[in-house]
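re: that chain from earlier
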Amino acid sequence: MNKLIVIAGPTASGKTAAAIELAKHYNTVIISADSRQFYREMSIGTAKPSRDELAEVKHYFINTLSITDIFTAGDYEKRCLTLLNDLFKVHEVVILVGGSGLFIKAVCEGFDEFPDPVPGLREKLNKEFEENGIVYLQEKLKISDPEYYEVVDLNNPQRVIRALEVSESTGKPFSSYHKSTPNKRPFQVIKLGLNLPRADLYQRINHRVNTMIQHGLVEEAKSLLTHRRLNALNTVGYSELFEYFDNKINLTDAVELIKQNTRRFAKRQMTWFGKDEEIVWFEADKEGLIDDLMSKINEIT
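^ sequence. v structure.
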């Protein structure tokens, strides 16, 4: 049976480097499951693989969308499964790598069908967001779906609004539509996770943010300022700098907020992945990591 090897884990845990080494070993390709790396206009702030890394191994779902495009986890599931059907005609193994747990779940397991929302509800929630801000919607979500509240990227209004739209339309939490019985896929899924002790991971995150600033994140965010209302840009690394451009905070505070919010995001990623009992975990900076990953893959298969 063809194999989909998933490399999951929090941001800055070294997933990209590990995935590239595995892809080279298996002479295969990589599919990105990082929902922010889909967008062409966002590069520095999303920590996309470098030009050299992209040249080493063929990557899919990087720079495939514009920030003006609406793209859901359901859309990703359909497109990714179609792509995998083609890739598995050429490759016995394909690597799926990223930190977007919802998108990984979409490919590996699928979702229940979501009911049609109440007409006008999304517009109502978008208006509430514009008038009251994201914190107001976060609090509504905390009440209606505390389980999803613990794992969702709370700074992403598209995700928060979608969850509220489902729960307010049906009276059932958004999280209840995540399948308890996964769809059977025509390929074997092997889930490997990379993590670090919290202090080490946070140090990596802080260093990465500093590097982003040095490489021009402020300038990149400024070039996107006129598009700030788009859902794709309501995310860590950009929203904080938009506050700086509005003269609400200084640059030093904006950078510290990016670090803080990225650390919080990493914690939420680990909360999500920690609930997946199929993931086999590895310490990301351990010597001989790639050999250990391949050994586990051979053991499982």
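The chain has two domains: 3-111+179-300, 121-177.
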